[in-house]
Write a structure and sequence with these properties.
- This is Large ribosomal subunit protein bL17.
- Belongs to the bacterial ribosomal protein bL17 family.
- Keywords: Ribonucleoprotein, Ribosomal protein.
- InterPro entries: Ribosomal_bL17, Ribosomal_bL17_CS, Ribosomal_bL17_sf.
- It contains seven helices and three strands.
- It is mostly helical.
- It has a three-stranded antiparallel sheet with strand order 1-3-2.
- α1 packs across α4 and α3 packs across α4.
- The termini are far apart.
- 12% of the residues are buried.
C-alpha cells in the first residue's frame, strides 16, 4: 500500500532530484516551455508553482527564498521581471502540461510539453477572440432591427407599400397533365397555339 506517499522520487536520490528540478525550473522560467516526460513534468509543476507565487511579492526576502532554490541570477531576474508582471493577476495554475502523442525511443516514456500559461501567444489570442465574441449580446431575435424600424416619437408613419405577388406577364408557363412530361406538355401547347 502507498498511503500518504505523495512524492514521486523519479528513481533518484533526494539531492539529485532537487538539483534536477531546480535546473528544470530554471529552464522553464528562461525558455517558457520545455519538453520532458510526464512524470518529471508533474513533479516540476509541484516544485515551480510555489516559486512563481513567491515571485508575485517582490521583496528581498522572497528573492532570497527563490534564489536558495534556483541558484541562478539570470533566472531570478527573468522570474521577478517579466514572468511576475504577466502572472500578477492570476490566482494560481501558472503552468500547463500538454501530452504529446509520441513516446521516447529509448524507454518508451510518455512525453509532454510543460509551459507557462501566460506566455502561449496562440492560446491567448484565441481566448481574447472568444471573450470578444461572448461580450456581444446574442439573442434569438435581433434588437437592432426593432430600434431602426420603429419610428421616433412625433413622426408620421407612411402607409406600407403594396407588393404585387403575381408572376410577371412575360414569363411563359406550361400546364402539365398527370402522367405527362414537361417536354410533352410544351409540345402540346405549341401545337395548340
Amino acid at each position: 500500500m502507498r498511503h500518504g506517499k505523495t512524492i514521486n522520487h523519479l528513481g533518484r536520490t533526494a539531492s539529485h532530484r532537487n538539483a534536477m528540478l531546480s535546473n528544470m525550473a530554471s529552464s522553464l522560467i528562461l525558455h517558457k516551455r520545455i519538453t520532458t516526460t510526464v512524470a518529471k513534468a508533474k513533479a516540476l509543476r509541484k516544485f515551480v508553482e510555489p516559486l512563481l507565487t513567491k515571485s508575485k511579492n517582490d521583496t528581498t526576502h522572497s528573492r532570497r527564498l527563490v534564489f536558495s532554490v534556483l541558484e541562478n541570477k539570470e533566472t531570478l531576474k527573468e522570474l521577478f521581471g517579466t514572468v511576475a508582471s504577466k502572472i500578477a493577476t492570476r490566482p494560481g495554475g501558472y503552468t500547463r502540461i500538454i501530452k504529446l502523442s509520441d513516446v521516447r525511443l529509448g524507454d518508451n516514456a510518455e512525453m509532454c510539453i510543460i509551459e507557462l500559461v501566460d506566455f502561449n501567444e496562440t492560446l491567448l489570442e484565441a481566448k481574447t477572440a472568444g471573450e470578444a465574441k461572448a461580450a456581444a449580446p446574442t439573442t434569438r431575435r435581433s434588437r437592432s432591427k426593432k430600434k431602426a424600424d420603429a419610428p421616433a416619437a412625433g413622426e408620421a408613419v407612411a402607409p406600407a407599400a403594396v407588393v404585387e405577388t403575381a408572376a410577371p406577364a412575360d414569363t411563359a408557363t406550361t400546364t402539365v397533365q398527370e402522367g405527362e412530361t414537361r417536354d410533352e406538355a410544351k409540345a402540346d401547347e405549341e401545337a395548340a397555339s
